[in-house]
Amino acid sequence: MAQTETDGSEVLETREWVDSLDYVLTKSGANRAGRLLQQLALHARREAGINLPFSATTPYQNTIASRQQPPFPGSQEMERRIKSLVRWNALAMVVRANKIQEGIGGHISTYASAATLYEVAFNHFLRAQTETGDRDIVYFQGHAAPGMYARAYLEGRISKQKLENFRRELKPGGGLSSYPHPWLMPEFWEFPTVSMGLGPIQAIYQARFIKYLENRGLKQSTGGRVWAFLGDGEMDEPESLGSITLASREKLDNLIFVVNCNLQRLDGPVRGNGKIIQELEAIFRGAGWNVIKVIWGTDWDSLIQNDRDGLLVKRLGEVSDGQYQKYFVESGAYFRQNLFGTDPRLLKMVEHLSDEQLARMRLGGHDPIKVNAAYAAAVKHTGSPTIILAKTIKGYGLGEAGEGKNITHQQKKLNDDELQMFRSRFGIPIPDEELHNAPFYRPSDDSAEIKYLQARRQQLGGYTPQRKVRASAMKPFPDSHFEEFHKGTEGREVSTTMVFVRLLAKLLRDPELGKFIVPIVPDEARTFGMEALFRQVGIYSNVGQNYEPVDMDTLLYYKEAKNGQILEEGITEAGSVCSFIAAGTAYANHGINMIPFFIYYSMFGFQRIGDLIWAAADMRCRGFLVGGTAGRTTLAGEGLQHQDGHSHVLALPVPNLIAYDPAFAYEIAIIIQDGIKRMYVDQESIFYYLTVTNEPLPMPEMPAGPGIREGVLKGLYRFKASAKTDAKARAQLLGSGTIMYEALKAQQLLEEKYGVAADVWSVTSYKQLYRDANDCERWNTLHPVETAKVPYVTATLQDAPGPFIAVSDYMKVLPESIAKWVPGQLVSLGTDGFGRSENRAALRDFFEVDAKHIVLATLAALAREKKICADVVERAIQELGINPEKANPATS
Ligand SMILES: Cc1ncc(C[n+]2csc(CCOP(=O)(O)OP(=O)(O)O)c2C)c(N)n1
Ligand SMILES: [Mg+2]
């Protein structure tokens, strides 16, 4: 008869084996014991075909056994007192803010659950400066911000008044932003993390970018680590998990994730019916990470050590997170009954503990000894990134006010009793009569707590978070790199993408500054004709090239190198933009003026990864986003999902992003030269979006005369005036990007066929024009008796007789945005609607942005102004071969 688990002889047998293993462990150590287990498994497979079932998880217990723990490196008692003070002030900040202003929000429970994770890190691990001059880079969980502010208050870095104005940043003297926002607190926060998922993916690419800088010899100091403090609910975001194999593939042992597994998200449990710690363990182990679970606190040590038959650990592994959450709010008696009551042997294990003691059994994430052990192991680990999964209770310490309850995430108010309870639990010396207002509390500078805390930070090189711009101004690239493009191509047809790539290659070749350029592509280099750069500067690989590339004997072979300069990211726009952010903020984070050029399919930019671009803006990221194969009708053939006619509309909301839709080579050269100057020489907190296209066209010479450069940069200049002097009527055509060439054809048609003289203007940026005009209008409203400012667009077009016909490869709303400042009737032609698989001519006909539709729109506008007869328009429709009943592309 087969033995069963409960069979007495099996139990005996198991014990014997375990005893033998224990003997090997004591005699020869853990490595030998591990090898022995492997040998046993091999033997079993060979002799009897026994295959151990695959398991991605380890038992539900701490990865680090209690006897492997290092001694705690500081005073536990002192650190507990400091932590209590931070807890109190973090809570007080939110409670006070909501007393003063109902509904202002804030989070108490997140930090309450994570306090130990942060405090152990702040006191012993997060280095603001290392011995080699490097530092640790830390991504703080966004809505744990009150804890970071409360600590900075104790450190003397944030005033009481600022705490008072938490979430009221517009108060005189300023306040504190809800979450980490470098834009709003540029000397404090470095990384916006509160849009969930953006922290973890950014941390991965930051750690990778650090290795890139080191491997390329650009960053001398080494040894800094990247820490990311994350929520367990946050791990559901695709961005959180999407790049974790990059981290292991590139052996990012400078990266540590700390996931606060409080088992709850906003509405309720993260995995009520499952176990988030086990799930994440499986995912990250499978991806090659070093996983450290911190589940049980010291209180559990002896129970687990005495669990010789593994009964307890097995039982702990059966209980679901939803049930564990229930234990947090229930009595010790319930806990005993429900968890241990399933087996008399389990009950026996805890019979020496009272219900009260049982209820107070601490979890690993609240135990500094366990957390310290995990951090110490993580920083020692080499060869792969580490994730620490720490089990905690959401709203820890709030008791009835929310500890472990589903409502805890939203808890912002505590009544007097609850405040009193919290105060007493954490021993904050505030008398009852003052409690009602939840006053902040900071002991004097010479108190033992403050002295200890300051000494710890001093030991670790200073404070964190703290944002500093470490790079000084860069010198400009020489003019000669850009001048070639002013000449035009003498009829030779090239696309603006080719122009851009040629310019990029030139910049890369600069002997002094070229090394600071970072070309980033998401598997699209050939699409953009960039393959020549593979050979020129190499593709970055952390291991070099361990194979013979298939195209080795060609000129442009696929060259990977440890000091390669191109970041070939593969098919991940999210990852690529994180590299862009890491490079574009290196001026601050690493003191190196890196200039990223992220070149991608324009359709997969703002639309797909807009939130990361928003974060880049917040972070004062610099560099160039280059939207390739842009333009709804210029990208032929690819159809609805690829043809972009709205990225410039989506670029409008980003406040510090300058967006251009250039038509000509010299425009690109002027914009990039000026962009590098503004961002890296003048050190402005701006970045650029540039669309380039793949339609080969002859690039004209830059027109002579004053104001062209200024016009290109400000967004508008006259490119080609009409030569016709005896015109019946006059009009102005505003063209952009490749559609400029349609405007130029229309100019000719209007002159030759309809006797209309039309000047052609190049609009390089509607966004620039809109911003300037809006700014003038606002100023004029606020200064009614002063001489009114005239918007650039109005002043420039002032003497140009309208109507104005604007045409671009983007939505009509783009030119419409400046309509009221155009001195005359504005008609906007654009590419509203879904794209189609077709050639350019057919697409431009379909979207009504080709020369004939420009002519028609011009004639119609002139007729509306009674400058020509409606008959002329009617006749033109026939002459131009336009079907007046054709479907509206905007909705078809
Ligand atoms: C992309 C995104 N979606 C939603 C939110 C709103 N939100 C803020 S906190 C939160 C719950 C967070 O849960 P978890 O990650 O487990 O953090 P905890 O507070 O439990 O530590 C949600 C949904 C957000 N900030 N970002
Ligand atoms: Mg959570």
Question: Can you tell me about this structure?
Answer:
By secondary structure, the protein is an alpha/beta fold. Helix 2 packs across helix 4 (145-154) and helix 29 (740-754) crosses helix 34 (851-864). It binds thiamine diphosphate and magnesium ion. The site of thiamine diphosphate (TPP) has 17 residues, from loops.
Keyword list:
five-stranded parallel β-sheet, 42% helix, 35 helices, binds magnesium ion, alpha/beta, binds thiamine diphosphate, elongated, single chain, 892 residues
Q: What topology, given as strand order, has the largest sheet?
A: 10-7-11-12-14-13
Query: Uncertain segments of ≥5 residues (pLDDT<50)?
Result: none
**How does the major sheet shape up?**
6 strands, parallel
Q: What overall geometry do the principal axes of the alpha carbons give? A: elongated
Distance between the termini: 74 Å
Mean pLDDT over the full residue set: 96
What ligands are attached or bound here?
A: thiamine diphosphate, magnesium ion
Number of helices: 35
Helix share bin? 40-55%
Structural class: alpha/beta
Return Rg in Å.
Answer: 33 Å
- What share of the residues does DSSP label as strand, in percent? 5-15%
What kind of oligomer do you see?
Answer: single chain
* Number of separate strands: 20
